[in-house]
């Protein structure tokens, strides 16, 4: 058992990451500007910012590893300058403070948006499915900050960092309660996203259950040396968040992808998590086809028992 400090542990992704790590037997410290009732962690409420703020919490809690999730997580939810400055400052601060305090291992959240697939002026994939070798084309403050963070990790490794570093790009995160009707990050329910494929087409139908992303974090922390230092991983579901066959849906909603879309099977994800599977033995266990259907079955059962009551 070790002590893992999760920044942003109260968030959509953080709550599941904290829960998975705690259930696996780790001591978890969540540092966030808000608290969540019932989170299986020591919760520290504080505003993180520069390296000094991270140093204080690292010195107080002496974590063996840090999972850095805290960020402005929604593109365009704040002025560009604020998103870029906040997200890069937080990531820079985490790495600097880890070096200064002897924390050995840091995993940082990036985003699939670094690929640039939803650029208003159009975007052309080089190949499908998209993997970690695909060229990047960020076009807004959020994705530019994530690219900067990935470059910063690369630079850190090149400079001979004493840290073990990793970066993951979780696909559109679905928290467990969202299978049961809670709004997703963009405010729509899962049912609305499935009923109107245009809503998910902007992110090429990518998604991941937050608990599966938590399992990825657990797998990475268990074997941080399994991949070259600073490695980047896509972390997505094993299928796409769309009811119709994926090649047709891509051709209909994202015509630039049509020429390459036939490389995909009818339910395939557009983003490949094969690297995580190959190097870490992680693969997603949950799909909307099981999780959302489970919700429908339960609703059905509830309706039937109400009708017979
Ligand atoms: N949700 C997604 O679909 C998605 C997809 C790709 C990448 N990501 C990345 O994953 C990470 C987590 O995303 P999320 O969806 O859980 O976001 P979220 O907004 O639900 O959670 C982020 C948490 O960080 C906290 N936080 C933010 N700034 C802070 C600060 N300065 N000091 C202390 N706490 C702070 C917030 O209070 C919040 O609880 C982010 O880095 C995000 O960019 C998320």
TrEMBL record:
Q: Which residues form the NAD-dependent epimerase/dehydratase domain?
A: 4-236
Matching Pfam families: Epimerase
What is this protein called in UniProt? NAD(P)-dependent oxidoreductase
Look up and give the organism this protein is from. Gryllotalpicola protaetiae
């Amino acid at each position: 058992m070790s002590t893992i400090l999760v920044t942003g542990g109260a968030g959509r992704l953080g709550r599941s990451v904290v829960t998975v790590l705690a259930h696996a037997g780790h001591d978890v410290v969540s540092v966030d500007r808000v608290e969540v009732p019932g989170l299986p962690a020591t919760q520290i409420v504080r505003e993180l910012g520069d390296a000094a703020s991270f140093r204080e919490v690292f010195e107080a809690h002496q974590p063996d590893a840090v999972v850095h999730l805290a960020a402005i997580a929604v593109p365009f939810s704040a002025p560009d300058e604020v998103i870029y400055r906040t997200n890069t400052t937080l990531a820079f601060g985490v790495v600097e403070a880890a070096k200064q305090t002897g924390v050995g291992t840091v995993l940082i959240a990036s985003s699939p948006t670094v690929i640039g697939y939803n650029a208003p002026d159009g975007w052309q994939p080089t190949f499908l499915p998209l993997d970690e070798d695909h060229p990047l084309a960020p076009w807004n403050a959020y994705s530019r900050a994530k690219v900067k963070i990935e470059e910063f990790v690369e630079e850190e490794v090149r400079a001979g960092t004493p840290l073990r570093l990793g970066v993951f790009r979780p696909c559109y995160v679905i928290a467990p309660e969202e299978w049961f009707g809670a709004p997703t990050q963009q405010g729509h329910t899962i049912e609305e996203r499935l009923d109107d494929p245009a809503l998910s087409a902007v992110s090429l139908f990518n998604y991941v259950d937050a608990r599966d992303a938590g399992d990825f974090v657990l797998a990475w922390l268990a074997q941080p040396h399994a991949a070259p230092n600073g490695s980047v991983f896509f972390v997505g579901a094993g299928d796409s968040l769309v009811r119709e066959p994926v090649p047709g849906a891509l051709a209909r909603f994202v015509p630039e992808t049509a020429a390459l879309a036939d490389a995909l099977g009818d339910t395939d994800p557009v983003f490949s998590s094969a690297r995580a599977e190959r190097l870490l033995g992680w693969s997603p266990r949950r799909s909307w086809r099981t999780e959302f259907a489970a919700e429908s079955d339960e609703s059905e059962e509830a309706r039937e028992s109400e009708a017979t009551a």
